[in-house]
UniProtKB/TrEMBL annotation:
GO molecular function, one term: transmembrane transporter activity
Keyword list, A-Z: Membrane, Transmembrane, Transmembrane helix
Organism: Flavobacterium akiainvivens
Source superkingdom: Bacteria
Keyword Transferase annotated: no
Keyword DNA-binding: no
TM helices/strands, residue ranges: 16-39, 51-71, 78-96, 102-120, 140-162, 174-194, 214-241, 253-269, 281-299, 305-325, 346-369, 375-393
UniProt-recorded name of the protein: MFS transporter
SUPFAM superfamilies per the UniProt record, alphabetical: MFS general substrate transporter
């Protein structure tokens, strides 16, 4: 009851944003896992899964730019809603393909990228405008708690539903039905979003090429985050199809330990302080590295399940720490440079995209020049070990950010920037 009262004490927009994202979270496992599984089932080609992911990640930064222009004329709630519904449209395109050609996969991927671009660019802005540094741990902890619980139910239910159908035609029909349900859920999420009193950014210029040194530090952190995103979203589906077998195993493996993970994440978000973010981030990165290296060393059913279990805990921990760090830096540099927050949300995507390209390229190079098994076995481990650099970068960012934030009011922005630059070198 105490936790319910704490949620009710938050602002109206805070509650609506959480509820909107909660409803949309019902389709996230479908988008992240089972679209990749569909490609694997119908092509048995892991490179096509990664190419699909690359198409998505190409559409995202493009849409971030388009969204910045549209925000001058269109209400943010409408753009946010369109972004959610486009994910259903992308799945419809995928299911309508008679054969999974690279062109068809590319079109479906770009459309999903447009969806994600509209969704995440507006969601990130609403998160920073709705929360503050004191309640961001709680906001992301609450979201992650629901996401992790949903990750228990949805993969198992969908895996069971697909497995209950016999024959390739029956399984294809199951995917079509799932796509229809996804579209209905995105419409429900859009309806919830319209209950919010969200305002568009006031600044109309979003593209800049010079930034505070602290921001460049965050971009390097974003690059490492994107490195794993390059193919980590679809890696579980590829590993399970190759090692464990069918979609039923996919759902079961994704659900192992999820209840415990959800409870842990919620209480970390609820009671942790801003000063605890580096510790939370570090634990997530280390768990990810341990799971990835174990999978690379053994590459069997046990190692895949352990990797998925550790990833189920590690990813929420990393996100729980990363997003508040990102928004805190935006708070600081936007005040120094006197620019709107959306400027940094847009630019941040460039760092993520650079990392995603490198992550996907790592897998594809190993796939084409060595072998598929070699890529599946070692690419994740290589990237996980590289990501450990993020621990030291995040620690430095927080240290420098706190120093800049506590400087006397009399310090001019230019002087603060020079001092910060000398400290970062």
């Amino acid at each position: 009851m105490k936790e319910v009262d704490h949620f009710k004490s938050q602002s109206h927009n805070f509650k609506i944003l959480v509820l909107t994202n909660l409803v949309y979270a019902l389709v996230q496992p479908v988008i992240d896992i089972f679209v990749a599984a569909y490609i694997m089932r119908n092509s048995d080609d892991t490179s096509k899964v990664v190419i699909y992911q690359l198409a998505i990640y190409t559409g995202i930064p493009l849409t971030f730019l388009i969204n910045g222009f549209l925000l001058k004329y269109v209400n943010i709630r409408k753009l946010y809603s369109i972004g959610m519904m486009l994910s259903g449209v992308s799945m419809i395109i995928m299911m309508s393909l008679k054969s999974l050609s690279l062109t068809g996969i590319g079109v479906a991927g770009i459309t999903m990228g447009l969806s994600f671009g509209l969704y995440w660019s507006n969601r990130d802005y609403l998160a920073i405008s709705t929360t503050n540094d004191d309640n961001r741990n709680y906001y992301y902890g609450l979201e992650t708690f629901f996401y992790t619980l949903i990750a228990i139910i949805i993969p198992v239910a969908i895996g069971w539903f697909i497995q209950s159908k016999t024959g390739e035609e029956g399984k294809h029909d199951a995917y079509v039905i799932i796509t229809g349900v996804v579209f209905v859920i995105t419409m429900c999420a859009s309806a919830v979003c319209y209950r919010g009193r969200f305002k568009n950014p006031t600044e109309k210029k979003y593209i800049y090429f010079k930034f505070h040194p602290l921001w460049y530090k965050l971009l390097s952190l974003a690059m490492f985050k994107g490195l794993a995103q390059g193919f980590l979203v679809t890696a579980p589906a590829m590993l399970i199809f190759k090692i464990l077998g069918e979609e039923g195993a996919l759902g079961n493996a994704q659900s192992i330990g999820a209840v415990l993970a959800a409870i842990i994440i919620y209480f970390i978000g609820r009671f942790s302080k801003p000063s605890d973010r580096v510790k939370t981030f570090s634990v997530g990165l280390v768990l990810f590295a341990v799971g990835a290296c174990l999978n690379g060393a053994l590459f069997n059913q046990t190692s895949v399940i352990v990797f998925l279990l550790l990833l189920l805990i590690a990813k929420p921990l990393m996100d729980l720490a990363y997003y508040p760090i990102q928004l805190r830096v935006i708070d600081i540099v936007s005040k120094i440079e006197k620019r709107g927050e959306f400027v940094y949300i847009l630019n941040h995507e460039a760092g993520l995209y650079a990392g995603r390209l490198m992550g996907a390229a790592t897998f594809l190079l190993l796939f084409y020049f060595v072998s598929e098994d070699f890529a599946l076995r070692y690419a994740v481990g290589i990237i996980a070990l590289l990501q450990l650099c993020s621990i030291f970068i995040s620690k430095n960012i927080i240290k420098q950010g706190n120093k800049i934030a506590t400087e006397p009011d009399g310090v001019e922005p230019e002087q603060a920037m020079q001092e910060a630059a000398s400290n970062l070198i």
